[in-house]
């Protein structure tokens, strides 16, 4: 067993933080560890702290917890630092989106071809990029042997920025590859008999291999898509893995887009709400439409409130058990109807001793420290893994981890050339533009993003939208940075 310190920055994100805590509780090799929960929102932080202690208590896990509002306190003496913070929160994104749409940029200037996810900002997100970069430099200074596990978006830009400029151990981690699990489940296959690989970049991964009992199983996906798309009706805005847009992208690029890749297609699927509904289904038009994103934000807000209420209940009822009938009734009573099922299911899953959360952070830590080999999908520099992609570009690829480090699997069969030339290369160039702007402070690079945007009708439009975003409260440092 290896007792360590794990720092979680942005720990007020209750569902995510509790998944990590649950995984730690179920990982005996990390018994005795200290979890440092860091967030600037004390109410959310205290709620997570209360629930984390309750989880550990019910598992009988040997874990200790501390809370802090100071980033460096969370980093000091940590072996792993998980960064899931969102600077400015979603309210900043909505301010930028409102200004953008005022000047004709539907869903915001940061909604770009092959990067349509509604909180994956790269143009106006200076504060997020700088904070993450500063955290990496703090790790180099305070805990140089620690691993930075980058969870907050934009994972693609941040993994490239940090691996190129800060000499620390670092990987980007996402869970979009679980879209493969959804396909396996819909097909009714035994997951133990499925062999699969994905490859690409974060939020741009493709199913390069899909075999069942040693045979090519892509024909099963073809049959499933024909059946699913014919009368497609999403169960929620995130239900898009077997949508018309997924089928269309598969038919054009030659491989199945996985997870958030489905959300990150070309303008063909995103011109307006009507277009989104055509491809992503009624009534929302996908999670990144104005309707789908409101659904998501409302749901997240309600879950955050419910978590605080649940934490308060356990604070006031010290002997209550998470899985007791009284506790579950209390949890249900504290939530609105549309999130009751989701919240109770999440708690049941987290308390299932045989089930891990699906997040990869603790699996990686345990493999590196205790030599329990594990297969993962991580973001790290290409270094020849995908031919034709520069070595220093972060790719999302299958790997295995053990005490000797992280090892890349060969991508076999390789990614089709069309995916590289018509999807990955354009997405990589947009990442490079974002980093060029951030590292040089050249506002002209930001302008060039929009000059090449099909929604732009004039240079005056570009200047006005950027100036108004730069003038937002909280963007003082960004404004100074881009005044060069």
Mind explaining what this structure looks like?
The protein has 484 residues and is of the alpha/beta class. It has helices spanning 14-25, 42-59, 71-75, 89-102, 126-142, 155-165, 179-187, 218-230, 244-253, 273-280, 290-316, 325-333, 337-351, 361-370, 417-440, 443-451, 459-470, 476-481, and strands at residues 5-9, 33-38, 63-68, 80-83, 147-150, 169-172, 194-201, 204-212, 215-216, 256-258, 374-381, 394-402, 405-408. The strands form 3 sheets. It has a 6-stranded parallel beta sheet with strand order 3-2-1-4-5-6, with helices on both faces. Strands 7, 8, 9 and 10 form a 4-stranded antiparallel beta sheet that branches. A hairpin with a 2-residue loop joins strand 7 (194-201) and strand 8 (204-212). It is globular. The N and C termini lie far apart (52 Å). The mean pLDDT is 95.
Topology:
Blueprint: E1 5-9, H1 14-25, E2 33-38, H2 42-59, E3 63-68, H3 71-75, E4 80-83, H4 89-102, H5 126-142, E5 147-150, H6 155-165, E6 169-172, H7 179-187, E7 194-201, E8 204-212, E9 215-216, H8 218-230, H9 244-253, E10 256-258, H10 273-280, H11 290-316, H12 325-333, H13 337-351, H14 361-370, E11 374-381, E12 394-402, E13 405-408, H15 417-440, H16 443-451, H17 459-470, H18 476-481
Brief account:
The chain is an alpha/beta fold and 484 residues long. The chain has helices at residues 14-25, 42-59, 71-75, 89-102, 126-142, 155-165, 179-187, 218-230, 244-253, 273-280, 290-316, 325-333, 337-351, 361-370, 417-440, 443-451, 459-470, 476-481, and strands spanning 5-9, 33-38, 63-68, 80-83, 147-150, 169-172, 194-201, 204-212, 215-216, 256-258, 374-381, 394-402, 405-408.
């Amino acid at each position: 067993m290896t007792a360590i310190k794990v720092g979680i920055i942005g720990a007020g994100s209750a569902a995510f933080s509790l998944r990590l805590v649950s995984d730690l509780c179920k990982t005996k090799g990390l018994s005795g560890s200290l979890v440092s929960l860091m967030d600037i929102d004390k109410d959310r932080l205290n709620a997570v702290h209360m629930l984390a202690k309750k989880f550990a208590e019910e598992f009988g896990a040997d874990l200790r917890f501390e809370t802090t509002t100071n980033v460096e306190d969370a980093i000091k003496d940590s072996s792993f630092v998980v960064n899931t913070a969102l600077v400015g929160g979603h309210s900043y994104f909505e301010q930028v989106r409102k200004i953008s749409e005022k000047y004709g940029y539907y869903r915001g200037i940061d909604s770009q071809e092959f990067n349509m996810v509604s909180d994956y900002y790269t143009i106006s997100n200076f504060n997020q990029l700088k904070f993450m970069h500063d955290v990496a430099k703090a790790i180099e200074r305070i805990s140089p042997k620690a691993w930075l596990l980058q969870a907050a978006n934009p994972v693609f830009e941040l993994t490239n920025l940090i691996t190129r400029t800060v000499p620390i151990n670092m990987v980007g981690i996402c869970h979009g590859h679980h879209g493969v699990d959804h396909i396996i489940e819909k097909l009714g296959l035994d997951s133990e008999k499925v062999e699969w690989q994905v490859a690409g970049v974060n939020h741009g991964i493709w199913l390069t291999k899909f075999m069942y009992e040693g045979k090519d199983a892509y024909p099963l996906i073809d049959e499933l898509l024909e059946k699913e798309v014919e009368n497609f009706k999403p169960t929620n805005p995130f239900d898009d893995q077997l949508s018309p847009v997924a089928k269309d992208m598969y038919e054009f690029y030659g491989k199945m887009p996985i997870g958030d890749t489905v959300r990150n297609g070309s303008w063909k699927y995103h011109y307006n709400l009507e277009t989104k509904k055509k491809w992503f289904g009624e009534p929302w038009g996908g999670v990144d439409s104005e309707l789908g994103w409101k659904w998501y934000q409302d749901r997240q807000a309600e879950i955050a409130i419910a978590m605080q209420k649940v934490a308060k209940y356990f604070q006031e009822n010290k002997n209550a058990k998470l899985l007791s009938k009284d506790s579950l009734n209390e949890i249900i009573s504290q939530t609105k109807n549309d999130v009751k099922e989701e919240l109770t299911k999440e708690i049941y899953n987290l308390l299932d001793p045989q089930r891990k959360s699906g997040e990869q952070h603790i699996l990686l830590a345990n493999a590196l420290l205790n030599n329990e080999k594990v297969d993962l999908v991580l973001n790290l520099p290409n270094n020849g893994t995908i031919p034709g992609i520069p070595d220093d570009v972060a790719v999302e690829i299958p790997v295995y981890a053990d005490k000797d480090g992280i090892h890349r699997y060969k991508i076999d069969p390789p990614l089709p050339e069309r995916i590289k030339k018509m999807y990955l290369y354009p997405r990589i160039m947009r990442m490079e533009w974002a980093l060029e702007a951030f590292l040089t402070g050249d506002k002209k690079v930001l302008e060039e993003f929009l000059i090449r945007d099909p929604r732009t009708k004039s240079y005056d439009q570009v200047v006005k939208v950027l100036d108004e975003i730069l003038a937002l409260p909280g963007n003082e440092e960004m404004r100074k940075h881009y005044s060069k």
